[in-house]
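sorry for the late reply, my laptop died twice this morning and i had to redo everyting from scratch. anyway the thing you sent over, i finally got around to it. pasting the sequence first so we're on the same page, its 211 residues, then the predicted structure underneath. double check i copied it right bc i was rushing
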Amino acid sequence: MDDESEVQEYQQMDHEGVNGAFVDDLIGGGTVGPKVVDLGCGTAAIPVLLCQRLSEIEVLGVDCSVEMLEAARIEIELGSVTGRVFLEHADCKVLDGFQDDAADTVISNTMLHHVAEPERVIAQAIRILAPGGRLFLRDLARPASEAEVEGLVDLHAAGESDYGRQLLRQSLHAALTVDEAVDILAGFGVPSEAVRMTSDRHWTVDWIKTN
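ok and here's the structure:
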């Protein structure tokens, strides 16, 4: 989202429940940080929530949208986590400026379906993750039929604008199936049991890098 009006539309959508569930599941599932990298951080809602919940961590949020990062700077200040959440304008498929094994935890929430080659993002996420570090990625799962897509749009975007409903519809169509996610992650040594459906529309991988 490189257009200011699109970012404003996005911010007006109700992400509170989804973001809260992500942070709850991340914290409840194991160790987090102290150095966390959030790929596709958007407006930094999750980094802000994480730092408000966990006093010992710092989060580097990475996004390719300048407009998103500008909105994120405001959210960081409003969330009183300045000096603990940092922002980087970068392509998550490349991350040339990031050292290997630099992060204790790498996270991403519903970003992979925006990328034509999600395996490139996953490769970078694993590269920058230190041995013993935790990979926690969540994304939408593509339904098997148009009827299922429309059912999820009606259920989860009933109160949203036409833009918000269409954004969810397009995102569901663009998402990987769970089997596709499992196949991609297997190529990086992530076992199938680390990938599971965690809601009616999300799959999550929660995995510790062994070496």
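Strands lie at 35-39, 58-63, 85-89, 103-109, 129-140, 195-197, 202-208.
thats about all i looked at so far, will dig more tmrw
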